[in-house]
Design brief:
heterodimer, A: mainly alpha, MetI-like fold, two-stranded antiparallel ribbon, 77% helix, 1% strand, B: alpha+beta, Rossmann fold, OB fold (Dihydrolipoamide Acetyltransferase, E2P), 2 domains, six-stranded mixed beta sheet, five-stranded antiparallel beta sheet, 8 helices, 21 strands, 35% strand, elongated, transport (chain A)
Chain lengths: 273, 354
């Protein structure tokens, strides 16, 4: 096929993204520097000068980071196991791993409310076993958000990891062992560096997903605001579109910074990756 | 001196038995090949010795110690994989240095030893390249260097040449033999290619269905296969079932129906009681019809069914009262299909197999 024809195939997608994504983002970013008829940075100085806003931002980033690490810790062993199975059982196991993605986040958040609440399963068990004499506050805390988000994003991490792990030849691991490496050492020096591309993709997807998630923190976080629920509140409840735009731009900036940092870390750990 | 001994070893995957009651001895400094078709258990035997899988029953002794349950990383064996298994994220230098670093060798020693071994495999100057940037033959050499640099007690090759093209293969074969003899490392070599095994080995073990059918010097196996399986595997395409045998003065007389044959009795062919004869297509002689009639010892009348030109020679499939025989013969004027011919079985080429 001729090159021009191939470029033509890109056109519909490009047009759609250009009109409905690039232009609105550029306009949003532009609008944050223009307030009351003058060019200004006041939106950002106002935001970063306010300790309440900073606390929301910090909570969001910390919650997202913990969620990412938890997904990685829980997802890696699972993904490694799945990647070592035959094609047939791999398909079945992956389908099971992905299954939670098919249920709505609202339904899942409600289930967590039942499990984590003051009269929920976990607190019943804790009080019943005598581990604490009164129920713990789990629901409507950042912990609840982390639990909900981990549940939500674990399948994505598993899929990303299986993708790279299944391409790591088992002979590499046994070759390393035959050369004197312990299991742990073979993992650290062979499996981990070769899995880095998948770890980075999985981590970026989970982190960005957690950073921008709305339903789960809205339902499980209670009064605890995260940046997306805070954005919604400003835009819809307080009608402060200027501050809402500033928040949106900050979210985009954080996303880019984190993705950039992760890529750089991956390059340093695995120069050929 | 026997370095390595497998004593009645059995291996099973689930309910499937791969090796059954296998016994094997390897002498120090020798190169022993395991030869056989896929699924015969040769790779399983190698992996068992390497420590990648464990025997269900039996013992593996190495230099007098029990290695049956010894972990892979404590065995000090060098392994060259069929896929080479080079670490793709490491340079040639780091690949070769891996084993030394795992042994906490001083970095200055690592440098000099890696440099020296890369010269042994003719790869000096390739230290900073990555596996992706090397040809198949070069990767093979890196894999060998990586296995050699740790000064292994045993070197294991798992079909190391099967991913190379024919030219490189014969070159690498010579190279492997040279390195092995130069360093005097006891080596176990697995392949399904008989030419490869015969050309580099001190001894060859031919395996079938998890058992060793014959273990001997390559020349002996080539001339005197012990069993029908071995004979078939190394190119004896013609078999005869005899009904009677008698032996006197170094000659074995054989009878198949009304046809009589003789075979020279020597250590390789006198398998007592064996009633199956085998002969290579190259050794079977096709002659124009013999007027002396039936009953001439060592000859069998037949009709040419298929005549194929092989370049150097013609190949005939000849139908006889004792079945079809394949014979290769160099000749100027070939026999045609349908022609009556006589097959002659030279007594020194006809061997008896179990």
């Amino acid at each position: 096929m001729k090159k021009s024809v191939l470029y033509g195939l890109l056109l519909p997608g490009l047009l759609f993204l250009g009109i409905f994504m690039v232009i609105p983002i550029v306009l949003t970013i532009g609008s944050t520097f223009y307030h009351d008829g003058t060019l200004t940075l006041s939106g950002y100085t106002h935001f970063f000068g306010d300790s309440y806003f900073n606390q929301i931002l910090l909570t969001t980033v910390v919650v997202s980071l913990i969620t990412t690490l938890l997904c990685l810790a829980l997802g890696f062993p699972t993904a490694y196991y799945i990647s070592r199975k035959t094609a047939r059982s791999k398909g079945i196991l992956l389908a099971i791993a992905i299954f939670p993605l098919l249920t709505s986040p609202i339904v899942r958040s409600f289930s967590w409310m039942i499990i984590l609440g003051r009269k929920g399963l976990i607190n019943d068990a804790i009080v019943g076993l005598g581990l604490s004499d009164k129920p713990l506050d789990i629901l409507y805390t950042p912990t609840a958000i982390v639990i909900g988000l981990t549940h939500l994003f674990l399948p994505i991490m598993i899929i990303s990891l299986v993708g790279v792990l299944e391409n790591i030849d088992t002979d590499l691991v046994i070759a390393a062992q035959s050369l004197g490496a312990s299991r742990m050492s073979a993992f650290v020096r062979i499996v981990f560096p070769l899995a880095l591309p998948g770890i980075v993709i999985g981590a970026v997807l989970v982190f960005v997903g957690s950073l921008t998630a709305y339903t789960t923190p809205a339902l499980l976080g209670g009064k605890q605001r995260v940046i997306s629920t805070f954005l919604y509140q400003n835009a819809m409840t307080l009608n402060d579109w200027f501050l809402a735009s500033v928040i949106a731009v900050i979210m985009i900036a954080i996303t880019f910074i984190v993705v950039g940092l992760m890529n750089r870390a991956a390059r340093q750990l695995n120069p050929k990756g | 001196m026997t370095l390595l001994t497998l004593e009645s070893v059995s291996v099973a995957y689930g309910s499937q038995t791969i090796l059954k009651d296998l016994n094997l001895d390897v002498e120090k400094g020798q190169l022993l090949s395991l030869l056989g078709p896929s699924g015969c258990g040769k790779t399983t035997t190698l992996r068992l010795i390497a420590g990648f899988l464990e025997a269900k029953e039996g013992t593996f002794r190495f230099a007098g110690d029990d290695y049956t349950r010894k972990p892979v990383n404590k065995r000090n064996f060098g392994i060259v994989f069929q896929s080479y298994a080079l670490f793709p994220h490491m340079s040639v230098f780091d690949n070769v240095a891996f084993g030394l670093r795992m042994r906490k060798t001083k970095e200055t020693d690592v440098k000099s030893r890696v440099k020296r071994i890369l010269e042994v495999v003719s790869l000096g100057g390739f230290e900073t390249r990555f596996p992706k940037e090397l040809s198949g033959g070069q990767r093979q050499r890196v894999a060998i260097a990586r296995a050699l640099v740790i000064e292994p007690d045993l070197l294991l090759f798992d079909e190391p040449l099967s991913n190379l093209d024919a030219n490189l293969r014969s070159g690498m074969r010579v190279e492997i033999r040279r390195i092995q003899q130069e360093l005097g490392i006891t080596t176990l070599y697995v392949s399904h290619d008989q030419e490869e095994c015969f050309s580099i080995s001190d001894r060859v073990a031919v395996m079938n269905k998890g058992l060793i059918e014959q273990i001997d010097r390559p020349e002996t196996i080539f001339k005197y296969p012990a069993t029908e399986f071995v004979a078939r595997f190394i190119g004896f395409h013609n078999f005869l079932n005899f009904t009677e045998r008698a032996e006197s003065e170094g000659v074995i007389s054989l009878r198949a129906g009304e046809h009589l044959f003789t075979a020279v009795a020597n250590p390789g062919t006198t398998r007592p009681g064996a009633l199956k004869g085998a002969i290579r297509p190259d050794d079977l002689v096709v002659a124009a019809e013999d007027r002396s009639g039936p009953g001439v010892i060592g000859s069998l009348p037949g009709i040419v069914k298929v005549s194929t030109y092989l370049g150097r020679s013609y190949q005939y499939v000849v139908e006889t009262a004792l079945g079809n025989f394949t014979a290769n013969q160099e000749m100027e004027k070939p026999f045609y299909s349908g022609q009556s011919v006589t097959l002659r079985f030279p007594p020194d080429k006809l061997v008896l197999v179990d």
